[in-house]
Write a structure and sequence with these properties.
With 204 residues, the chain is α+β, with helices and mostly antiparallel strands. It has a single domain, classed as Gcn5-related N-acetyltransferase (GNAT) (Aminopeptidase), CATH 3.40.630.30. It contains 5 helices and 9 strands. Strands 1-2-3-4-5-6-7-9-8 form a 9-stranded mixed beta sheet, with helices on both faces. A hairpin with a 5-residue loop joins β5 and β6. The longest helix is centred in the first third of the chain and has 16 residues.
Length: 204
């Protein structure tokens, strides 16, 4: 994993490189690719995400989203990234480190989504690995937390193959697809060993 600063020092723009992927904050030029991928993947993503607002895929909503992201990064509250495939720069999904807590906690919550055409190809495993390196090295976090639905087998495998340990079950933890649903709780510590490469068995 490598982190580079892009643009003048006053710009808040991070570039995180993984194995065959790279991550960067969304920009307005990403709107069409993002909206197309999200729309194409709507049925695939709906069971695992909060209910989408009616205007979620509009250009105006995307612009509001970018303004919020810039402020979150500036305030060290969240680091949202889009995921691109290295080589052809195709947008494949997104990943966010949010709810950052400093002080005695030094923790963040991991969220992610993968577009339907790119699921099961190991791209999210590579992205999670890159983000973990960024979180522990550049952000100096101690703990990354993640939650997933108990019936989301792909997400469970993704987290566990990337070193996350299951710590419990939270009842009615998040409102997903319009319903309050239980979630498994996972965490990765900076002291936990990280897989170095994506194996051929990785399919997330």
């Amino acid at each position: 994993m490598a982190l580079f600063r892009l643009g003048p020092p006053s710009d808040i723009a991070n570039f995180v490189r993984g194995e065959g992927v790279y991550l960067r904050p969304p920009e307005m030029r990403d709107y069409e690719a993002w909206a197309d991928l999200r729309e194409h993947s709507r049925a695939f993503l709906t069971p695992w995400e909060p209910t989408w607002p009616g205007d979620d895929l509009t250009r105006t909503s995307f612009r509001r989203r970018l303004r919020r992201h810039v402020q979150e990064i500036a305030d060290d509250e969240a680091y949202p990234f889009l995921i691109f495939r290295e080589g052809d720069d195709v947008l494949v999904g997104g990943l966010t480190l949010g709810q950052i807590k400093r002080g005695v906690a030094q923790s963040a919550t991991l969220g992610y989504w993968m577009g339907l055409p790119f699921a099961g190809k190991g791209l999210m495993s590579r992205s999670v690995r890159a983000m973990a390196g960024f979180a522990f090295t550049s952000l100096r976090l101690h703990r990354i937390e993640a939650a997933c639905l108990p019936h989301n087998e792909a997400s469970i495998k993704l987290l566990e193959r990337n070193g996350f340990k299951r710590e419990g079950l939270a009842r009615a933890y998040l409102r997903i697809n319009g319903l309050w649903q239980d979630h498994f709780l996972y965490a990765l510590l900076e002291t936990d060993p990280l897989p170095l490469r994506v194996s051929r068995r990785d399919r997330a």
